[in-house]
Design a protein that fits this description.
single chain, 360 residues, alpha/beta, Glycerol-3-phosphate (1)-acyltransferase, 7-stranded mixed beta sheet, 14 helices, 7 strands, globular
Length: 360
C-alpha cells in the first residue's frame, strides 16, 4: 500500500467519504440477500484509494473533477461481477460525496431520468400522503395492458394533477408502471419547469409524442380540456370544458389502447383562479392567472394550497373490436369522445359529495 496522502481539506473528495464508502458496502450485504437473492459476500470494501489503482491514488488525480467517476467505474466493475448493477446505483445514493454531479448519464429519448425520479419520489410521497392526503379508488379497474391512455380533468397552470396521477398509478397498481403525462405546450417554454418535468417523465403534449409513447407500450396521461380547463375560473370548477376535436380517441382506437377515464377532485382548488387577463398573456407570452395569493404574495403565491384530493378511476373503454374504417369516422369519434367526457363528469359528481370538505 502506498503512502499517498488524502486530498487537501476543501478539495472535491475527502477522506471521510472513503470511510463512508466502506461502511456502505458492508451495510449492503443484507440488501444483497433480501432483494437480489445473492448469498455470496459483497465485493471487498476498499481499504484505501490505492485499491482502485495508482492512476486514481495520486494526490493530483484526487482533486480532479473526474476522480469520483473513475472510482465509480471501478466499483461498478466489482459489482457487475455479482450481476447487481442496480446495487451500485443504490450505493451512490447512500454516499454523499462533495462535488458529485446530480445528473444521470442515462435518459430516455423524452428526457426521463430514472436517477432524478428516484430522488424526487421522497417529496412526491410527502405531497401525496400529507399535503394533499390523496385517496384513490377504482385502481383495480385499470387493466394490466400494454397500452393504456388515462384521460382526466385538468386544473391550474402547473401540472400537479399530472404528477399525482402518475404517482398514484405507480404506487397502487400491481404492475408498478408509471404513466407518462402529456403537459401543456407552453409549460415547455418556462425556464425551470420544463427540464424538471421531463426528468420526471412528463412529455410535451402533441399527437406525435403520444403516438410514439403508445407504440413503445408506455402508459400515457392526457388532459383533453387543454388550456381552457386549466384556466377556468373557480366558480366553474369541476365543470368539464369541451374536449379538443379529434385527438385521443382516434389515436387510442388505431393503436388499440384502452382509455381509462379519471376524475381528480381537489386539484381544481390548488390555485383558485379569479380571472385571467388576456392582455397580460399577450404581453408575456404565457397565461398569468390572478388568484387570491398570486401576484399579491409574489413567489409564495405559486405554492399550491393543501386541498384534500380524491382520484377515481372509471371503467376502461376498449377498441379491440372496432373496425379500421370507424377510426376515421367523425360520428364515431365524436360519440366516443363525449362518452369519455360524460364518464369523467359522472365520476366527479359522485366523488365531490364524498369529500367532507376541501381541507379535511
Amino acid at each position: 500500500m502506498s503512502d499517498a496522502k488524502p486530498p487537501a481539506e476543501g478539495g472535491p473528495i475527502r477522506s471521510e467519504a472513503l470511510a463512508e464508502l466502506r461502511a456502505s458496502v458492508r451495510a449492503l450485504r443484507g440488501e444483497l440477500e433480501q432483494r437480489f437473492g445473492i448469498r455470496d459476500t459483497p465485493p471487498p470494501a476498499p481499504d484505501s484509494v490505492d485499491d482502485f489503482g495508482p492512476e486514481l491514488a495520486a494526490p493530483a488525480a484526487q482533486t480532479s473533477p473526474g476522480w469520483f467517476e473513475g472510482i465509480g467505474r471501478r466499483l461498478r466493475a466489482r459489482l457487475e461481477d455479482l450481476d447487481v448493477v442496480k446495487l451500485y446505483e443504490a450505493l451512490r445514493e447512500r454516499v454523499s460525496i462533495p462535488g458529485a454531479a446530480d445528473v444521470s448519464a442515462e435518459v430516455d429519448e423524452f428526457g426521463l431520468d430514472e436517477r432524478y425520479l428516484l430522488r424526487a419520489r421522497g417529496w412526491l410521497d410527502w405531497l401525496f400522503e400529507y399535503w394533499w392526503r390523496v385517496q384513490v379508488s377504482g385502481i383495480e379497474l385499470v387493466p394490466d395492458a400494454d397500452r393504456v391512455l388515462f384521460v382526466a380533468n385538468t386544473a391550474g397552470i402547473l401540472p400537479w394533477d399530472a404528477l399525482m396521477l402518475a404517482h398514484a398509478v405507480e404506487r397502487l397498481h400491481p404492475s408498478g408502471r408509471r404513466p407518462r403525462p402529456l403537459v401543456a405546450d407552453w409549460l415547455a417554454t418556462l425556464p425551470f419547469s420544463q427540464s424538471r418535468l421531463a426528468r420526471m417523465g412528463a412529455v410535451r403534449a402533441c399527437a406525435e409524442n403520444a403516438e410514439r409513447l403508445l407504440l413503445a407500450d408506455q402508459w400515457v396521461i392526457a388532459f383533453p380540456e387543454g388550456q381552457k380547463g386549466a384556466l377556468k375560473p373557480f366558480r366553474e370548477r369541476y365543470r368539464l370544458q369541451r374536449f379538443a376535436r379529434g385527438g385521443f380517441v382516434p389515436l387510442a382506437a388505431r393503436l388499440r389502447a384502452a382509455i381509462v377515464p379519471v376524475a381528480i377532485v381537489g386539484a381544481e382548488e390548488l390555485y383558485p383562479i379569479l380571472f385571467e387577463p388576456r392582455l397580460l398573456r399577450r404581453l408575456v407570452g404565457v397565461p398569468v392567472p390572478i388568484t387570491p395569493t398570486f401576484p399579491l404574495l409574489g413567489p409564495l403565491g405559486i405554492i399550491p394550497l393543501p386541498s384534500q384530493w380524491r382520484i377515481r378511476f372509471g371503467e376502461p373503454i376498449w377498441f379491440d373490436d372496432v373496425a379500421p374504417e370507424r377510426v376515421t369516422d367523425p360520428l364515431y369519434v365524436n360519440r366516443t369522445r363525449e362518452q369519455v367526457r360524460g364518464a369523467i363528469q359522472a365520476l366527479l359528481e359522485e366523488e365531490l359529495p364524498r369529500r367532507r370538505s376541501i381541507f379535511s
